[in-house]
Specification:
Layout lengths: L1 H16 L1 H36 L3 E6 L5 H12 L4 E7 L1 H11 L18 E6 L6 H11 L5 E5 L2 H43 L1 H9 L4 H40 L1 H4 L10 H26 L1
Antiparallel strand pairs: 1-3, 1-4, 2-3
Helix pairs in contact: 1-8, 2-6, 2-8, 6-8, 6-10, 8-10
Length: 295
């Protein structure tokens, strides 16, 4: 307990002696984690949005004209037994035209001169979760396009691939930025602790003369780095929360224009704990890099 009080006292003395550099170190760590956190928030929310939209992905099989009721019933049965298909809905030509008219309600002028119903009958297929990736959808489509009576198949392949590409870019970008800024934070903290060590050289020499171990001498500086990192992590969480609330309120204002509210989620508790741990880790790494050179 006495040692802990000594270590904490030394940390406070060091921080007071190098307040400006300590603030710079804390801000650097906070800035590093905020940028990484913004990418992480973007990735998590995009991933959640894509996950919800994937559940709405439909594979639509358009049937050739003149297909008989018996062929439709046979095809319906085959589709229900198809691996990966969770639900099958048949849409007749008449139902398709009715839905089309409803979608164009108030713009009936567009239907003038339509003549006979040109819309084909179709089957709408909902896929199970494990079959909602781009590759799985392609496999299902290839298996279905050879079925008798199927004229064409449509599904959101390009959309899924584009969104997956965006998610990958965000993931890689956040990792690279986190690594680069993390290294910068370690260097800055290392220089901060170095200044502290240089200012306390006489005290350190006295401790060495009276037989203090190397670990005992180094501990206050490691705790100082951890404190700076932990503070930076806490500040980053507060800033991320402020950005999140601002984005949430702005999206709420535009929800009517976008056709509905866009749900946003903040970082879950394990990620917040990880932010604090990473901040403390960066601080310790910077301290260790400095004191190993000097002590």
């Amino acid at each position: 307990m006495r040692q802990l009080r000594y270590f904490l006292k030394e940390v406070l003395l060091n921080l007071r002696a190098n307040t400006s550099t300590a603030v710079i170190s804390t801000v650097t760590i906070a800035f590093t984690l905020v940028l990484f956190g913004l990418f992480l928030l973007l990735y998590l929310n995009l991933n959640a949005l894509v996950g919800s939209l994937r559940q709405e992905i439909k594979v639509i099989l358009y049937l050739r004209d003149g297909i008989s009721e018996k062929e439709i019933a046979s095809l319906h049965e085959k589709l229900r037994d198809q691996p990966g298909v969770s639900n099958v809905t048949y849409i007749s030509k008449e139902k398709a035209l009715e839905d089309f008219r409803r979608a164009l309600e108030g713009r009936d002028i567009l239907l003038r001169g339509l003549g006979d119903n040109p819309l084909p009958a179709s089957f709408e297929l909902m896929l199970e979760k494990m079959f909602q990736s781009s590759e799985a959808i392609q496999r299902v489509a290839r298996q279905l396009e050879v079925l008798k009576g199927v004229d064409d198949i449509q599904y959101g392949r390009e959309w899924v691939e584009n969104v997956n590409a965006v998610l990958e870019m965000v993931r890689v970008g956040s990792t690279l930025i986190g690594l680069i800024l993390g290294l910068a934070a370690v260097v800055i903290i290392s220089n901060t602790i170095r200044l502290t060590v240089l200012s306390r050289l006489e005290d350190i020499e006295v401790l060495q003369l009276i037989g203090a171990t190397r670990a005992y001498i180094q501990m206050p500086f490691l705790l100082e780095g951890a404190f700076l990192g932990l503070t930076g992590g806490a500040v980053s969480i507060l800033l991320l929360r402020a950005v999140y609330e601002l984005a949430k309120s702005r999206l709420a204002e535009t929800s009517g224009f976008l056709g509905g509210a866009i749900p946003l989620t903040f970082l879950p508790a394990p990620w917040l704990v990880l932010f604090l741990a990473v901040g403390a880790g960066l601080g310790c790494a910077g301290s260790l890099l400095s004191i190993r050179r000097l002590l």
